[in-house]
Amino acid sequence: MELSTKYAFLIPLCPLVASRSTGSLSFFFPKATRSLRRLFATFNTSSLITSTFVSFVSFRQQAATHSIQQYLWARIPKSDFCLKIGFLIDPLTLAMSISVTTAGISVTVYSDSYMCHDQGYARFYAYLSLFTASMLGLVSSPNLIQIYVFRELVGMCSYLLIGFWFARSSAANACQKAFVTNRIGDFGLLLGVSGVYWITGSFEIFELCDRFIELNNNGVINPIFANTIALPLFSGPVAKSAQFPLHVWLPDAMEGPTPISAPIHAATMVAAGIFFIARIFNLISILPPTMYAISWVGGVTTLSGATLALAQKDLKRGLAYSTMSQLGYMVSASGIGASRSALFHLITHAYSKALSFLGSGSVIHSMEKVVGYSPTRSQNMFFMGGLRKHMPITGTTFLSGTPSSCGIPPLSRFWSKDQIIMESWLRSPYLGLIASTTAGLTASYTSRIYLLTFEGNFRVSLVNDIGFDTSFPPENIIASRGGAQPESLARRTDSNVTSAADIRRDKVTETRSLTHFYEGDPVFGEATQTNSELNLLHPRESNFCMVLPMIILAIPTVFAGLAGVNPTQKGTGLDLLFDWLTYLPSPSEVNKHLGNLTEILMSSIPSVSLSLTGLLISFKVYGRNSEIGDTKVFEKLKNKNLLNLVVSIRDWSINRGYIDYYYNIYFTRGIISISKLVSYFDRWVIDGFISGAGASTLFGGEVIRYEKNGRISHYLLGLVIGIILPILVVDLPIPPL
Asked: What pTM value is reported for the model?
C-alpha cells in the first residue's frame, strides 16, 4: 500500500487526539465516561493501531527510497530569527515509532483488564495515550526546541502516571522525586541547547551539526568551550535514561500501576535519552573528552545497576535495576562510537523488558487475591514460588524473556549485547571487562528473578510459619525447603513468628478494610473481590486480555535480534538504520549467512560463558533441586571471606548502594538547611527592614498628628525654634586642637 510520507504527522496525532478526547470527556462528563470506559479503551487502542500502521507503511517506503524528508512550517518569523516546527522522517524516527507504538498497543490492551476495577480507568488511558503521543512527537522532531518541549511532556506524563494513585504517600513522593531529578537534567540540557544555538545560530538538528563540525574543523571553536557546551547536553539523557548519579528516581517509579512500568522502562521514558544521544551523535562524536565521559558514565551505570539488582526482593524493583544496567550498556556503546549497536540494543531491550513487566504485573495482579493489596507482600518474590504450575502462560512467556535478557543465543538480546561487548573490548579493555562482567551478573539476577517467582514451592504460608527473613536468599531458601538451619539463622524473637492462620486472618482483614477504603475513593477505584477470592490458596492465571499481549511480545523477544544480523558482514547491527527489518536474504545467500552466524557465535563464546556461569550459580542457589539446604554446602558459604562478600553484596543491594542515604544527608538536608537560613534572613532582615521602615513612618506620623492641633501660636513657636537653633549651633566657639 502506498501512503505519502506527508501523512506521517498522523503517527503522534492519533494518540494525542485520543488522549484529549478521553481526558476532556472524563473531566466534563465523569459519570458517562465511567459507563462507556470500554469504548474509550477501544478508541485509544485503535488510535495506536493507526499510528503503528502508518509507521510500518512509511518505514517500508523510506527503506525503498533511502530518503530523509522534513516538513516544516515557519513560526515566530523575524528578520534574524525564524523557528520552524514540523516533523522529520528518517530511519531512526520510523524505527523508534514502530518500537513505541507496538509496545504501546500491548500495554493498552493489557491495561483494560489490569485497571478494570479502578475508577480512574479513563484517566489512566488519557495519560497513557498522551505519554505515547509525547514520545512519538519527540522522535519525529526536527529541531532542538521541539525535542525539548516533547521531553518536558514526557516528563509531565511520567509524573502523572507514577503518581496515578496519589493518595498513597509513597506514590506522591515517587512522582515528585522523578520530576525533580529530571528537572536537574533538563536544566543542563537547556543550557546546552542555548550554547549550541549561540555557536551555530540554528536549532535545526542537521544544520547545527554540520555547522558545528565545520567550525570545529576550521579551529573557530575552542575545544574546551565546545566540550563545556556538549556535556550539559548529555545531562538530559543522564537524568531521563536513569544514568549514574541521577538514576535514583527509577526504582521508586514502581509506585505507579504496573502496566505503565512497561512503557517507562521499555520504549518511552528511558528511551528518550538514548534517542537524543543518537540524534546529536554527529555533533558529540568529534569531541573525544565528551565521548570519554559518556562511555564511562554508561560503564559505571551498567555495573552498578547489575550489582544493585542482585539481592532485591521486590519483583518490580529488581526489573527496574535491570533496566538501569541495560541502559548503561546503550550509553556506554554510544560513548565508544557504536551508536547503531546501542539503538539495536534499545529496540531488542524494549520488547523483552515490556514482556518482563507485563509478566510481573500478571503475577502481582494474581498475588493480590492471595496476600492482599500490600506491595510488600504482593511484589515480594520470597512470598511467591512455583507459580508456573498455577500460571503456565505467564510463566512460559516470562521464561522466554529470561534467557534473552541473559544474552543466550540465538535470542534477540544476545545479538545486540554481544555486539556492544565486542565493541567495548576493541575501544577500551576496562570497558570491555565491565561489559563482560555485567553480562554474567545480568544472567545471575535475571534467572534468580525467574526461579524465585515461578519455580520451587509456593511460599506464602511458609514465610510466616518460620519467621521468614526476606532480606537475603540463602537463609530463606534453607528454611522454606526444609533444609538444615544453623543456630545463627534459627534465632527469631516471638514477635517475628506468625502462624499461617494469623497471616490469613490478617490478610482477609486487611483486604476487607482496603475494600471499604477503595469503595469511597475516586482515585483507587472500586474493589470487587469477594470473600471466596480472598481465601485463594494459590494465584490463578490472568485472563485473555492480559496473557495475549505477553504472547505477542514473546515473539519479538525471541526472534527480533535475528533481523539485525547483517548477512554480508561479519558482525551484527552494523547497518541498523537502513537494513534492519528490511533485508531478506535470497536462498543463494543462506549458506554464507549461516557461515557468518557461526563465526559470530564462535567469537561470542567468552561472553556467553560468563552468562552461563551466572545462570548455573543462580540455579545452584535458587533451583528446585538445589543442594543449598545441605549443611556441607552451607558450611562452604560460612567461609569468612565468602560470607563477608555475600553480606556486603546483600547490604549494597538492599540499601541501594547507599546513594539515596548520602543524597539525603548532603543534598536534601543541605538544601533544607539553606532554605531555612534564607527564610530566616528574609523574615528577620529583609522583612524586618521593610517592616521597621513602615513602623517608623507610622510612629512618626502619629507623633506629628498629635502636634498638628491647629494653633497658630504653636506653629510660630516651632518656626522660631527652627530658625534660632541653627544660628546658635553656628555661633558656638570651636575648641582649639
From this structure: 0.80
